[in-house]
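Researcher: I'm comparing several assemblies side by side, and this is the next one on my list. It has 626 residues spread over two chains. Same procedure as the others: predict the full complex and return the structure.
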Amino acid sequence: MYILVVDLGGTQIRAARCTPDGQMEERVAIPTLAAQGPEVVLDRIRQAIRMVWPQEGPVTALALSAPGPVDAHRGVVRFTPNIPGWKDVPLRDLMAESFGVPTFLANDANLAALGEFRFGAGQGVRDLIYLTISTGIGGGIIIDGRLYEGGQGLGGEVGHMVVEPNGPLCGCGGYGCLEAVASGTAIAREARAALERGASSLLTGMVSSPGEVTAREVAEAAARGDDLSRRIFARAGTYIGLALVSLMYLFNPALFIIGGSVANAGDLLFDPMRQTMRERSQRVYWENTPVVPAALGDDVVLLGALALALERV
Amino acid sequence: MYILVVDLGGTQIRAARCTPDGQMEERVAIPTLAAQGPEVVLDRIRQAIRMVWPQEGPVTALALSAPGPVDAHRGVVRFTPNIPGWKDVPLRDLMAESFGVPTFLANDANLAALGEFRFGAGQGVRDLIYLTISTGIGGGIIIDGRLYEGGQGLGGEVGHMVVEPNGPLCGCGGYGCLEAVASGTAIAREARAALERGASSLLTGMVSSPGEVTAREVAEAAARGDDLSRRIFARAGTYIGLALVSLMYLFNPALFIIGGSVANAGDLLFDPMRQTMRERSQRVYWENTPVVPAALGDDVVLLGALALALERV
């Protein structure tokens, strides 16, 4: 009895065959070939699934992760920033038809939340919120031990809470979303703008032009004591903290888990986050809502897909 | 078979005897006597309950509404702004002991949400969010037909979402909460400050000093075309709209219901709210999330308490 899981990314498709107790028996990674168009990508997904299909024994479920927003009720990938031509693809039903097994689909950040809940930093906690701070900001909300996808299937988009009414344009078309002011992209943008204004910073010695700065260099410079970089991280951490305050008042979760590459900066980001929560919410909220780093590594999304299948089958 | 419901307010305690199909057979209202201290208030609640207790027939549940935040899991009123000395009162268990029937307790705005869901503007909608815009801002979140109270019982506090990072101090100790920038109190504060700065407005002819302005006069002046008052309402409506945007991305509800005395201003408040939603969220969200006025009047909280009892018994 097996569960097959697939993590569709813009450059790679990863797939694995899992036993119901969470062991990954076999895994593969093949190029997505996104530039060759939607049909080719669908065939690549099918190929990855066939590669991990068991020689014997039944497949009880197929669980798929997609980058970008998913309509959870209809099983549709609304669009994916990194795969040209994907718009409203009914990925769940397409794969269910191809393979004839119960198929589940969710957004990758939502699945990462479920992975951390079932196998990572959130084990044993029934109500938690996970945020991934990376190029963008995504996340997932676990309510009473289940992934919460909103009344109409498009909820859980923590990255698009408005935290700065007069903030910069976001990829979603809004302004001042959390993602627009606190993602890796926003951190790099702030640093570049400061350098172009002539700010003095260790960053100038680390890149040959401001345009090359990414959040990684800002984190590195901040770790070496660079003032500008520390201020930029403090600002991002403060905005994330404001989002956590709102999330506490709305969901009153028992735990926040913060993952994603930008969260590797550790205290640089966690300190202003926690300080903002203490300063701006009542004690009964922040005192009972720890903020911890994510525990799982690269497999978090595949493990989340497995958790989704286990939850739904 | 009866359900008894009680609405504890700062000045009045209202109680009613209901049949399970939602008919209120008898109702009473007695003074709270809040100034006489917590024990007196508890006795007044007991007295109101005894006044509607049936001559014959069993009481299957008692449902209580409290003003101010309630710890839903423990059945405790954390504090109430209008009743001095109330702090962490285990009201649910106290009344259950006194009367020996299953007893339920929730915050008044949470119950109003449930009332609108079951008997008002939200009938038939399984996922909705209700906001009441009044002296403060409260609300309630209905998920899949049930009142959502958060992972640790203190959720659903929509009035304390942070919508303005650099906003004014809120009663909760935070800054820039929705309540601090868009409640009736905030609207009056903005108007007074403008008048004190010497702004020209119809308001000056309506009160003898700026300190007398309340949200009601601002609404009246705005309805008569006063520029300052219209701008103040537009600002409040815009902030509420920003909160609705975040709520759409998090909960993706099928309906927003807006109640409370300030919402009686109608389009003055609803127009900027809806415009903000359209401008700042994706079409798939705002197009599928109508915003409607509350349908129930003064009995909304009692009806919500009845709905809570019907949900839980």
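Model: For your comparison table: Chain A is about 40% helix and 20% strand.
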